[in-house]
Specification:
Its EC number is 1.10.3.2. It is found in: Secreted, Extracellular space, Apoplast. The N terminus is likely disordered. This protein has five helices and 34 strands. Strands 11-10-13-18-15-16 form a six-stranded mixed β-sheet, with no helix packed on it. The protein is about 10% helix and about 40% strand.
Length: about 575
């Protein structure tokens, strides 16, 4: 008896899927286990007519796409073949009771040393959407990053129109110099680091840069179709405006959480954030080619890369009609368009439906108030520095504490009760020790204190945190990222937070749920979250320069009483410092 065409087709599709995603091999009741191998290796790469050796995953820049589904388990073996220490962070993954897989060096783990490996093993629980992965040590994420795409469970659909095609677009920064040398020089001299030489779309700088017309990202589309663009800001130090000429975009998701759809011509995405947008192409192919542009939103007093990355949106038509097409360019806001950014961010709202609820804590167990901004450290004796004065270095702090990375991992120290060894202290202040007019005339003393200080909270504490920008060395926007949690953005405003009059205006009905939030330049933002994930969780500015200068802290969330509320022991291959 012959094999039916239907069975042949099923076998063909099955084999095709396996070849497309060979990582997905082990069946599970709740999902499948997907295996990946990340070989960290050096690769000669040329951009802007400049060739250099860069750190990559599997020789790719940007790195490979990791695709999974809600409920799946990811097992990623990282093998380090380069001289640098390395660790990989799965940015935005909740890591429920799997903090050993979160990745920030010296927080959750010691880095993977040359010639060693580590297996990141975690399950995607209750999340679907666009996230990304990146190196989490020094400035290696300049080249070590890639998309993490979490599809809905099988037979689940998007709460918006099914797209014809899905396209990840990663925003990045290219340095002609070695980014490690750039930050090391900055830390040595105390001055601001040299800025990047280009921005990139999927690793390509585009035609507005010298020698880069051949390195241009092109998005080829068909007329009358809906495309889902998965936008990821993986740049090191810059918030970016983004627009496509002649097309509006519908925002449907932020940080892997669905939002109430809204239409916009321009987006602002800060480092660490992801935004999914629907692009509806024109019914008929127009006689034009459309530029997509990204350039910085900049508020600080320091220098920044004031250049523009360009890609091309091109309609698929017979090649003969490509000639003499006009090239249309979108408009973008002014570099310092803070009011536009505040208005744009206020449009994000949770779906707040029965299926996708907004579980914002209605009551608060503990309130915190953290100032966020720059400051100074004294210059070492017998050295001239390049900070705000020749006797100071640039620093950054929360509540005037500049976070000092320990020499061993905080989570290991906590789990194995090595508190007495002086790795960290638990006295991070819940409020500024010396209140001042945060966004007004700056104080005369700009010096910060150094320390590896943590906040300790019991399991399941409901937390409200106000993050307040300061004008100590000039007001500046800061993207704050919290590991291990999503949080609800319940309020934001300009000037100093008013504890009497601002909280009654908080949105406790449908606030947006995120993992990275912009602290407005010269303003404040309020977030709430439920501390239901035991471990030690870093919170830091996602400008790497500010993180290198100490703009961060860590939350220690204690175990609960039940077995499923406790952090399991670490895996046997956890790296050692």
């Amino acid at each position: 008896m012959g094999t039916s065409p239907a069975i042949v087709m099923i076998l063909f599709v099955a084999v095709g899927c396996f070849m497309a995603y060979p990582e997905a091999v082990t069946a599970k009741h709740t999902g499948i286990t997907r295996h990946y191998t990340f070989n960290i290796k050096l690769k000669n790469t040329t951009r802007l007519c400049h060739t250099k050796s860069i750190v990559t995953v599997n020789g790719k820049f940007p790195g490979p796409r990791v695709i999974t589904r809600e409920g799946d388990r990811l097992v990623v073996k990282v093998v380090n073949h380069v001289p640098n220490n390395i660790s990989i962070h799965w940015h935005g993954v909740r890591q429920l009771r799997s903090g050993w897989a979160d990745g920030p060096s010296y927080i959750m783990q010691c880095p993977v040393q040359t010639g060693h490996s580590y297996v990141y093993n975690f399950t995607i629980t209750g999340q679907r959407g666009t996230l990304f992965w990146h190196a989490h040590i020094s400035w290696l994420r300049a080249t070590v990053y890639g998309p993490l795409i979490i599809l809905p469970r099988r037979n689940e659909s998007y709460p918006f129109v099914k797209p014809y095609k899905e396209v990840p677009i990663l925003f990045g920064e290219w340095f002609n110099a070695d980014p490690e040398a750039v930050i090391n020089q900055s830390l040595q001299t105390g001055g601001g680091p040299n800025v990047s030489d280009a921005y990139t779309f999927n690793g390509l700088p585009g035609p507005l840069y010298n020698c880069s017309a051949k390195d241009t990202y092109k998005l080829k589309v068909k007329p009358g179709k809906t495309y889902l663009l998965r936008l990821i800001n993986a740049a090191l130090n810059d918030e970016l405006f983004f627009s496509i000429a002649g097309h509006s975009l519908t925002v449907v998701e932020a940080d892997a959480v669905y939002v109430k759809p809204f239409e916009t011509n321009v987006l602002m995405i800060t480092p660490g954030q992801t935004t999914n947008v629907l692009l509806k192409t024109k019914p008929k192919a127009p006689n034009a080619t459309f530029l997509m542009l990204a350039r910085p939103y900049a508020t600080g007093m320091g220098t920044f890369d004031n250049t523009t990355v360009a890609g091309i949106l091109e309609y698929e038509t017979p090649s003969s009609s490509l000639k003499n097409r006009p090239l249309l360019k979108p408009g973008l806001p002014a570099i310092n368009a803070t009011n536009f950014v505040a208005n744009f961010t206020s449009k994000f709202r949770s779906l707040a439906t029965a299926k996708f609820p907004a579980n914002v804590p209605q009551k608060v167990d503990k309130k915190f108030f953290f100032t966020v901004g720059l400051g100074t450290k004294p210059c070492p004796k017998n050295q001239t520095c390049q900070g705000p004065t020749n006797t100071t270095k640039f620093a950054a702090a929360m509540n005037n504490i500049s976070f000092a990375l320990p020499r061993t991992a905080l989570l290991q120290s906590h789990f194995f009760s090595q508190y007495s060894k002086g790795v960290y202290t638990t006295d991070f202040p819940a409020f500024p020790l010396i209140p001042f007019n945060y966004t007004g005339t700056p104080p005369n003393n700009t010096l910060v204190n150094n320390g590896t200080k943590l906040v300790v909270i019991p399991f399941n504490t409901s937390v409200e945190l106000v993050l307040q920008d300061t004008s100590i060395l000039g007001a500046e926007s800061h993207p704050l990222h919290l590991h291990g949690y999503n949080f609800y953005v319940v309020g934001q405003g300009f000037g100093n937070f008013d504890p009497e009059n601002d909280p009654p205006k908080f949105n406790l009905v449908d606030p947006v749920e995120r993992n990275t939030v912009v602290v407005p330049s010269g303003g404040w933002v309020a977030i709430r979250f439920q501390a239901d994930n035991p471990g030690v969780w870093l919170m830091h500015c996602h400008f790497d320069v500010h993180q290198s200068w100490g703009l961060g802290m860590a939350w220690m969330v204690l175990d609960g009483e039940l077995p499923n509320q406790k952090l399991p022991p670490p895996p046997s291959d956890l790296p050692k410092c």
